[in-house]
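Operator note (shift B, R.M.): manual run for DUF5000 domain-containing lipoprotein requested after the automated queue skipped it. Running by hand, logging everything below so the morning shift can see what happened. Input copied straight from the record, untouched. If output looks odd, do not overwrite the archive copy; leave it for review.
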Amino acid sequence: MKSIIKSSIWTFILSLIMTFVACTEDQGPRPLEGNSNAPAEVTNITVQNLPGKVKLTYTLPSDDDLLYVVARYTLENGTPMEAKASYYSNSLLLEGFTGQSTNEVKVYAVNRSETESKPVTVTVAPLKAPVYDIYESLVAQADFGGIRITADNPTKEEIGILVMQKNIQGDWVPLRTSIYTSVDQIGQSLRGFEAVPQDFAIVVRDRWLNYTDTLYTNIEPLFEQLMPKSAFAGIKLANDAKVIGTYPVSNMWDGQFLEWWGSYFTDRTIDVGNHLVTFDIGAKTKLSRLRIWNFSEPIGGQRMYYYLGAMKKFRIWGSNTLNDGTLDSNWTLLGEYEIKKPSGLPYGQENNDDLLAARDGADYEIALDKPAVRYLRIECMENWIGGKFMAVSEVHVYGNPNF
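Run finished. Output pasted below as returned.
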């Protein structure tokens, strides 16, 4: 009988607990307190109008249970916005304006019961948003196999430069290769176009979906081809790096992108001076870019692309005559490059972003004002382990031999 009574008591207690939990879950998140009295309003609001932004500074009310201050406003494109700051701060930053009109902002003090004060209304007049100055600096010009977009973004805004062409219905449609960036100096080429005159439309957009006017242009991309590797030949100049074992320079154009036996390695025991490799591309060519696949070390069942002898900092040189290897006026510096690991993870750690950025190789562009050349040299200045030796899987050379 006692066991039956104890069982009944525990069943009753358990049912009460479950009922309490269910009720709590049904109610959802609740305010920290139950004070329905509205707090006092913020006072002494000052407005600082900035490019596309507004900074509000104010005096907080003295309510003991004040939790935060919220400002509500609507952007010129109709988007409702809200900005909050805790009671530890006396300012708010309101973003997303175009800077082409005045705007009304309502500011509320909110207590721990989520009870709001009466609104204080201020009128703001933000300055012209940075996206419009970026548009004014925009330049589109012909490039090898496509067009090149340059623009100035000194405040490093997060923007999209939408490059559009018409679809079969005659509507302007953004290309998948449109530019999304926050760098201060924008310079990017969109490739894969035939060398015939084509219409493009370009617009700049910020992350609040504010759009500039549209730049319409007709551009004829420059002819570009992948230079035939059958014409390539390795050259050994006096100061070229010693090769490990039997890994000839020709491994850089053998079509093997992963395995060690199809890659090119310089001697890692020699760390005096930068490591150089020289080769002939078979014809004097106006170069557009080199696509380079660094060797990827197989570590722990995955490929490590930013590891050991994979190049981190390097130069590309060009010439039409060979000398003893001295990098004098005979050789033109075609470009100096530094490879960035997208993830920013420490050496020896890589994620999927790193893999996606490296597995298909990367393009290293040659400026349009550089001369046509036949002989190329790659100079490894620093690899990912901090040395000079290089480990390269494959190199593609693009350009126009009929310049």
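Quick read of the result: The first strand starts at residue 43 and ends at 50. The two ends are 103 Å apart (CA to CA).
Leaving this for review. - R.M.
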